[in-house]
Amino acid sequence: MAVLWNRHRFSGGLLILDATNTVVLRGDAARSFDRFGDAGEIARFASVASVMRSTELGGRALSFEPSGGAVRQVMDMREAADRLFRSAASSGELRVADLSAVLRRCGACLDGADEAVGGQGRPFGNPARPMRLEAALAVSALGLLAGDVWRKIRICANCNWLFVDRSRNGSRLWCDMAVCGNRRKARRHYARKVAERELEDG
Ligand SMILES: [Zn+2]
Questions:
Q1: H helices, E strands: number in the chain
Q2: Domains and CATH numbers, the chain
Q3: Residue 202 alpha carbon to ligand 1 centre in Å
Q4: How close is the Cα of 21 to the center of ligand 1, in Å?
Q5: Which SUPFAM superfamilies does its entry note (predicted)?
Q6: Axis-axis angle for helices 68-91, 96-110 (nearest 10)
Q7: What is the whole-number distance in angstroms between the Cα of residue 142 and the centre of ligand 1?
Q8: Helix (H, G, I), strand (E, B) or coil at 164
Q9: Residues in CB range of 57: below 8 A, 6 or more apart
Q10: DSSP H or E run through 41
Q11: Residue 82 has pLDDT above 90, yes or no
Q12: Could you read off the pLDDT of 137-151 as tens digits, one per residue?
């Protein structure tokens, strides 16, 4: 079934984290699945991310040519980033072995690109033409590492996604209050009702 690439799927707050969140329920072997399992979905992710992440991308659109090599690069980049940023979110430190893997992946994704990034108002380079998704994932990951923003990465208490917590007191629990926050509340409410009923019946 085609994925509905709605706003919720872009709760990570940055392109590289949105990419890590394309694996649903990570760590839950029975229920986990990969939205990038179909390469066509990677291309659709790239085109919707162009809009959802327009500010980060400096208005540059993303493109994706689903060749075997490109699919592998996206997957390798995504998995290396997830390992590094997930452990950073729980420990507050960057594991050097994971950092090294991410940097290698970034190098591979950027290899052969004859262009410049980081210009004034052009963080991802010239917005006049699209950028390959692989290269954009690398620039997003490097941007996250360049400053202190990686310290604000959190793991959603409901769905395990990674997101940047930009709240003032840094206490956000959910990737998306409207989805995960409410689901959690509904589950607590249901559990309380069941407990009450058991008390009444007992
Ligand atoms: Zn969540």
A1: 6, 6
A2: 7-201 (1.10.3300.10)
A3: 36
A4: 9
A5: Jann2411-like
A6: 150
A7: 24
A8: strand
A9: 15, 50, 123, 124, 127, 131, 136
A10: helix 39-52
A11: yes
A12: 999 999 999 999 999
